[in-house]
Amino acid sequence: MKLTLNNGITMPALGLGVFQSAPEQTTAAVAAALATGYRHIDTAAAYGNEREVGEGIRRSGLDRSEVFIETKVWVSDYGYDQTLHAWDKATGKLGVDYLDMLILHQPAPDRFEQTTAAYKALETLLDDGRVRAIGVSNFMPHHLEQLLDSTDVVPAVNQIELHPYFTQPDVQAADAGHGILTQAWSPIGGITFYPGWGEERRNVMEDPIIAAIGRAHSKSPAQVMLRWHLQQGRSAIPKSTNPARIAENFDVFDFELGADELAAIDALNTGNRNGPDPDQARPERFAMVIPEA
Fold it and tell me: What is the largest CA-CA distance in the chain?
């Protein structure tokens, strides 16, 4: 299943995420995903595993053109020249000569002039053919408006925290209004742990409504949530290093949720995020240096 981006490029709707995947596990996870049928891998400079993602892709034996590679520029590399160099670092680690998607990892509102300069560098990379599509991550509607006011290319995607307990309808509406595809990170329920954020959260995987829908279709809660994303037109990038779960997460194309089931899942929204607030400056984290190699 593919989605068409606002510049005409197509992208597999379902991808493998590798946030918090240890480098030594990442290569095997990527290779397992590609063997299962995934053709979209999402990583980031800040994850520290781009090199292992590249190795997993090479290990798969697939041609480079068959795999949609998405990665992210970290805040410490924001600025026009710095972001052009971030492309050099990313492609060097991944072992490729172009990227399918390159996005800004955070809006970083405490330094938004640098954010805008970074995005202008993405526009240059797009124009040069060094990336096929560009976008953003964790941008709220006001961040998008601010960015669009001073740049030329509308982002192809906005990757945000999105699962049944946190659906961000205002962000989804803003994205849709601009022709931006919403891409869900933590799509199966905010399992990923962010120290200091969401310690009181409930596990969406244990939600009785999702479990009941799963039983009706002989599918797991994770499969139900991924199907919910896909039927509502979103991209989703579930993370796992377990080959069985990687395969399970991909086995979502042989059933369909009814309108009432989709509405029941939508109704689970609590409005509470599990990850960091994009409007909150995190100077120490933002200062993390991305190594050259």
Answer: 53
Burial degree of 224 (CB within 10 A; 0-12, 13-18, 19+) = buried
Interatomic CA distance for residues 119 and 117, integer angstroms: 5
Burial class of residue 64, CB neighbours in 10 A (0-12, 13-18, 19+): middle
Residue 199 structure tokens: 């310690």
Tell me which residue of 5, 3, 4, 2 sits closest to 156, measured CA to CA. 5
| Catalytic annotation, residues | 47
Interval 193-225: pLDDT, tens: 555 555 566 789 899 999 999 999 999 999 999
pLDDT > 90: what percent of the chain?
90
pTM of the model: 0.95
Specify the amino acid at residue 146.
Q
DSSP three-state, residue 137: strand
